Amino acid sequence: MNSKHIHIPMIRSLTAMAALAAASLAFAQDSQPSQREYASPTAKSRSNDGGISNSGDKLSHSDRNFIEKAAKSGMKEVEISQAVLGRLSNQSVQQFAQMMVNDHSKAGDELKALAGKKNVTLPQTMGDDHQKKYDDLQKKSGTDFDKAYINAMVDGHESAVNDFKKNTDNSDADVKEWVNKTAGIIRKHQKVIIAIDESSASAAELRVTMAKAVKEIVQRGSIKEIFIEGGSTASAILQAMDIKKLEPINELERGVVRMKANDLFITVKPGSYELPQLVKELYSIK
Predict the structure, then answer these.
(1) 64 and 35 in one domain?
(2) Per-chain mean pLDDT for the chain
(3) Nearest to 38 by CA among 118, 116, 120, 122
(4) Domain extent at residue 188
(5) Distance CA 61, CA 256 (A)
(6) How many other C-beta atoms can be found within 10 angstroms of the C-beta atom of residue 186?
(7) How far apart are CA 200 and CA 260, in angstroms?
(8) pTM, entire model
């Protein structure tokens, strides 16, 4: 193999929080997806039939406003996350969206029961502001779609955490209990989505930086051979070097293909594959 070669390893997440995010998402998938409408008022919540006590007169104005606002926010989390399921390209983001549907549907059911007990009629729509974010998201596609959803979740959870902090001293004991329980869930969601956002941004930025560096090295020197680990890394490098056509030469090992672009040989190994011993020897990789 030509000695004038460079080896580009696969770009991985550099944040420890990404591992925590993966762990959080793993155990969150135990429950099945819920398709229940979030916090939608029912006949019971509009009346006192069925033995539900009427303590609505005891609920303060601020508690009522908070319940209604929380219902809209939770409805937004569920409806947006349901809409993106199956369309996201990042598996971690896909798992996060499913967690949103599961957790917020459950919280919505609990809020619905609480509203019925307190004789509070919950809103049936997410509100104009949330609807606009939902509509804007539907216009995106590909990685832009993933990023738009991540941004919406980061912003939404920051707002929700602040709102719940302001309402930890509710005058009603039942409302306070629901707030304290749900606040913990929202804080967990916030940590996970921040970890996903940071790891995604770090990996993407590193790929772009490395691609530019590889391009400069190839242009300055007499590099004839490039060995790249990871499809995303390879894509970034080929894009930076404006390589649009590759001629397959041979398959060194299963999934490890050597190709040619002009006078440059490029070998690509999928990131999920183990590095074969033959390839290590050919490229002097330890």
Answers:
(1) yes
(2) 78
(3) 122
(4) 16-202
(5) 66
(6) 22
(7) 30
(8) 0.55
